[in-house]
Specification:
elongated, 162 residues, mainly alpha
């Protein structure tokens, strides 16, 4: 498995096209293998549960089992997985913007950090150039993680406190 950020660095360095849509497309194309493996493992776990065996024994077809038994139990997991992927996409996009390989025509937290680094804000003591964008990235990704943990406690009865 090749790290997504390394692939994105190589692709963005050699492509002249830089835009939000292109960056989103590349991030989406490189971040799916991790999610696909996790979803596949969860699906295989659900496939061996008793309610699926009961549906098989009652004569239900494969598609009926998939859409009536497995899909409803996967919906919460897919939602939580999308929250994690969104947080990872924000970190990757900010990293690409910071090193100058993202879109440069707009305003982003990564570009703000890049400007602070280029103008030596840390050395000059201008904390207001780098603290707010860094805190913004941390707050967004941290809030998504906390939301994911909270939803995991709601959807997973084993994690609930007694």
């Amino acid at each position: 498995m090749i790290p997504a950020l390394a692939v994105l660095l190589i692709i963005n360095a050699y492509m002249g096209v830089r835009g939000v849509a292109v960056q989103g497309l590349f991030i989406g194309l490189t971040s799916w293998p991790w999610a696909a493996r996790a979803i596949r493992a969860q699906t295989f776990s659900l496939r061996t549960r008793e309610f699926v065996d009961l549906a098989r024994l009652s004569g239900s077809g494969t598609w009926r089992i998939v859409f009536r038994e497995i899909a409803p139990n996967m919906s919460s997991y897919l939602f939580m997985m999308s929250i994690l992927l969104f947080g990872g996409a924000i970190l990757i996009a900010s990293s690409l913007d910071f090193i100058g390989l993202g879109p440069t025509e707009g305003v982003s937290l990564g570009l703000m950090l890049q400007s602070a680094q280029q103008w030596s804000a840390l050395q000059l003591g201008m904390w207001w150039w780098f603290i707010p964008p860094g805190a913004g990235i941390t707050a967004i990704v941290g809030a998504l993680y906390v939301a994911n943990v909270g939803l995991d406690e709601v959807f997973n009865p084993k994690l609930r406190e007694s």
